[in-house]
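TASK: fixed-backbone design
INPUT:
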């Protein structure tokens, strides 16, 4: 080892691969014992659980007789022990805007909001929609809901009014917490205005709490809108935590699937928190006084679990960043790392790819000496990108952890444990405690050893999805009916000779654009909302930075009907129905789509055409009209 290299990272929670193997075996052989012990050791309970798993994968429950509160575990126990420790460092869009709040201050800020919410009627079980920018009040709002046992449904600030509306309706939210505007990369986001539009067509919402952030004027409906600052100004500085059963719901988060509208993934209190807590602690090798930064938005599961619940439940200092990696320029991430002495950094491959494309010179203005662990999440990481992250960002002296998981899994399921698991660039390596991955072929046959197949999980883990809000049947259909007795992830993966997993991406009709999950069906229904459109089929194409981009084949009602405008209008329509993240990169207007005689669109063929893989189209004789294929290839956008 060259003497200027840092020593290998010492994970304070796990000695070596042997101890991982020992604990892993224990965790899958007697999950009840293993997780009950971990739950009691790691979390504070009002009533300790005696029950582990209920042995029912599709109607899972964990620690059923335990009583606890997530906010208590994330705030109170540290506010007592270490009141002056920093809980959240907030870094605004501009470099000089920064603020740090201690655990004691967090307790106060969350308490006054919880008391305010209580005063306007929010109670246990109520659903509260949170549509906020990346400001401290977003964290306070989520934690205030937790204190009261109210179920938050955070909607990402980039989603459109229509997307907010359908989420509010689905969860029957009575309250919305928002801000006048958000700011990101120097641009303003009209949050309150979007909420106003969303609420024009929904009746369930009684009160809208509005944080005055940029100070811009917004419409005000005094029978409905409440000023956040007024609400909290008259409240007591402490709010008791409601005692919740481990299986009481903690939050709903909407995520895209291969069919229909986004599903409201519901998580619990005990199992979810344990998953968030343990994965954060082990995988990132967390120890006291380390600064952790996850660059996600709190509107995604990564933000829920690894900006808030994982770090705070460990008493860590978590950094919350309002900005974007490219503003004011591509050195921003590294500048923030230096400014706040970040030790553990967690981001998405798409961000790294964009920074590689921007050029290495953006690394020169920072030292990044504080960094010890580099994490990635959201999509497969190309080995070259992994190498760049390791060598250039981490100067070959940081641990890289490629963490595979999903909204539905609640916390990381497959990942190296920093300092313990030997890594291979591009592989998420080995399963976390309690996780039994399996690979199956299309017929459901289990594949052993080195193999490539569909990735399933064969046994429940504490933070697994409990239900799709309002539609338990849909949960069973989506995750538990493709393969018997297994949870199907929707991903494909390879297992190598060392038992390492290499997740290759979705095998269903879900796209991953810049790490954001988007269902092709959602984009298609947005496109056909345009008056000139008869039919649409959407596929993913490979994209150097985004991972995937959206390619749409569109049949117009009348080909003459002003195509030039229609192109722009369709893109606008998608922004309106879903949000900018779902805009198609290309639209190809077509006469027809490749369909089987029974009328089923053959996406396999569309995918190949859009990706220029036309030499391997496969069998097209089953098409009702095989001539369409050539026509589509010739007309490529
Ligand atoms: C955390 C999150 C889930 C989908 C999942 C995969 C993909 C996530 C990785 C990954 C390869 C990874 N939740 N995915 N992490 N693919 N390697 N390390 O992203 O619900 O929004 O998306 O993301 O396809 O199914 S999510």
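OUTPUT:
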């Amino acid at each position: 080892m060259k003497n200027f290299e840092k020593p290998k990272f010492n994970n304070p929670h796990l000695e070596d691969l042997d101890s991982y193997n020992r604990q892993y075996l224990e965790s899958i052989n007697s999950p009840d014992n293993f997780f009950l012990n971990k739950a009691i050791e790691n979390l504070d309970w009002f009533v300790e659980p005696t029950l582990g798993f209920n042995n029912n994968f599709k109607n899972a429950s964990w620690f059923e007789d335990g009583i606890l509160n997530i906010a208590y575990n994330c705030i109170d126990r540290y506010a007592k022990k270490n009141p002056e420790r920093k809980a959240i460092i907030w870094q605004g869009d501009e470099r000089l805007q920064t603020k740090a709040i201690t655990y004691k201050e967090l307790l106060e800020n969350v308490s006054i909001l919880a008391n305010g919410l209580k005063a306007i009627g929010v109670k246990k079980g109520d659903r509260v929609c949170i549509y906020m920018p990346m400001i401290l009040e977003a964290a306070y709002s989520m934690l205030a809901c937790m204190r009261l046992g109210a179920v938050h449904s955070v909607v990402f600030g980039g989603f459109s009014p229509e997307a907010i509306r359908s989420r509010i309706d689905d969860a029957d939210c009575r309250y919305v917490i928002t801000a006048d505007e958000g700011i990101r990369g120097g641009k303003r986001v009209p949050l309150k205005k979007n909420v106003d539009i969303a609420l024009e067509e929904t009746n369930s919402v009684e009160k809208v709490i509005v944080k005055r952030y940029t100070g811009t004027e917004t419409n005000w409906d005094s029978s409905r809108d409440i000023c956040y600052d007024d609400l909290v100004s008259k409240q007591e500085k402490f709010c008791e935590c409601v005692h919740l059963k481990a299986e009481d719901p903690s939050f709903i988060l909407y995520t895209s699937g291969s069919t229909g509208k986004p599903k409201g993934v519901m998580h619990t209190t005990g199992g979810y928190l344990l998953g968030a807590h343990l994965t954060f602690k082990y995988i990132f090798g967390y120890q006291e006084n380390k600064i952790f930064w996850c660059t996600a938005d709190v509107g995604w599961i990564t933000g829920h679990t690894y900006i808030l619940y994982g770090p705070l439940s460990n008493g860590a200092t978590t950094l919350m960043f309002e900005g974007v990696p490219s503003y004011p320029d591509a050195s921003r991430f590294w500048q923030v790392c230096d400014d706040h002495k970040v030790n553990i950094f967690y981001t998405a491959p798409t961000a790294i790819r964009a920074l590689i494309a921007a050029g290495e010179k953006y690394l020169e203005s920072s030292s990044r000496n504080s960094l010890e662990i580099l994490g990635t999440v959201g999509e497969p990481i190309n080995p070259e990108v992994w190498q760049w992250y390791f060598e250039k960002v981490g100067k070959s002296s940081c641990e890289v952890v490629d963490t595979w998981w999903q909204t539905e899994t609640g916390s990381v399921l497959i990942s190296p444990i920093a300092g313990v698991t030997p890594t291979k660039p591009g592989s998420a390596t080995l399963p976390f405690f309690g996780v039994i991955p399996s690979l199956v072929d299309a017929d459901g046959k289990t594949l052993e050893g080195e193999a490539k197949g569909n990735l399933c999980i064969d046994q429940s883990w504490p933070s697994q999805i409990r239900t799709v809000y309002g539609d338990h049947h849909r949960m069973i259909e989506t995750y538990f009916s493709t393969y018997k007795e297994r949870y199907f992830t929707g991903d494909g993966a390879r297992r190598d000779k060392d038992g390492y997993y290499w997740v290759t991406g979705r095998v269903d009709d879900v796209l991953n654009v810049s790490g954001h999950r988007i269902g092709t069906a959602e984009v298609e229904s947005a496109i056909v909302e345009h008056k000139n459109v008869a039919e649409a089929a959407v596929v993913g194409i490979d994209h150097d930075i985004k991972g995937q981009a959206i390619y749409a084949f569109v049949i117009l009602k009348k080909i003459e009907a002003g195509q030039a405008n229609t192109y722009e209008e369709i893109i606008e329509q998608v922004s309106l129905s879903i949000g900018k993240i779902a805009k198609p990169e290309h639209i190809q207007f077509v006469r027809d789509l490749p369909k089987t005689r029974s009328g089923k669109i053959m996406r396999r063929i569309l995918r190949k055409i859009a990706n220029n893989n036309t030499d391997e189209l496969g069998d097209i004789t089953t098409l009702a009209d095989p001539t369409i294929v050539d026509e589509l290839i010739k007309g490529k956008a």
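COMMENT: The pocket of 5'-O-(acetylsulfamoyl)adenosine is lined by residues 255, 300-302, 377-380, 402-407, 428, 489-491, 503, 505-506, 512, 517 (CB under 6 Å).
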